Amino acid sequence: MEKVNIKNLTVDEMTEKFSELGLESYRVTQVRKWLYQKLVLSFEEMTDIRKEHRLLLEEYFFIPSLILHGFQQSGDGTRKYLMGLEDERTVECVWIPEPKRATLCVSSQVGCGMGCGFCLTATMGVLRNLKVYEITEQIAAVKRSLKEGEKITNLVFMGMGEPLANTRNLFPALNILLDPLGFGFSRHHITVSTSGIAPEIEKFGNNTPVKLAISLNATTDKVRDEIMPINQKFPLEKLFEACRKMHLPKRNKITFEYVMLHGINDTLEDAKRLVKILSKLKAKLNLIPFNEYPGTSFKRPADEWVHQFQKVLLNAGFVVNVRKSRGRDILGACGQLAKKGWDREQ
Q: What pTM value is reported for the model?
């Protein structure tokens, strides 16, 4: 008999399987608390469950975990983790501490198939989707490694992969992350980023209440076609139509991320067009000065130019943040994840 991966089960699936084994329904609550709050790696550690029931669980299920190969520490305190998967492939995630919060940047695929010209992860191509437990276990593995006083308050799905190309596993993983009997994160503290798969954006709000960020990065189809191939399939008008149709929880806005590439998309005319094309949407903006990496032809704009660009948007009434790049020295910043810089090839 092949054991079942208990971390790939929804609440309903776990309840059904426990019932088949003669276990009371409240055991589901107990087990989920041990798995996702106390982060245990064996049924033996679940000490408020009778021993014969622990043995029964051990007989029919197994608790998977990712292999933490190691981490790199940036001079700014950011940590990039390398996680081993069940098929010996690896993914990276990044822990970003700040004075009032600490964010974990999570991966959803091994590599990425979107082909964005400015993103180092895109050079890998996409190898496969992550499973439900491979998504949630990134959070668990990092939590186990944190020192006393360190924590994770926020999650952003901005690591390797296109999350909306893996909604089959993304949405169940988000349910576990939001569940009070799971990780218990607030919906306000989780953001999923997409390059712009319009049909999935339209359905996003019907499947999860977490926040959505869209990687926009251009104000014309001509430029976006060149740097983001997804735009050839879902051009700007289709993208914005999907945004208008998407159910948006009260007080939520869509965050539009804008990677600034010097001489490509960072003119003041671009800023003015951005004001115009986002004026009818509930939108806020994150400006991301390009994080350079070896071999790229793109350049990062000067800080003063970024501030001039931001000023145009602020004067139009938008909420606009300039994202401070963290972990650039370890290739851990936005667009830099590609399993580079480790001691051995992974």
A: 0.92
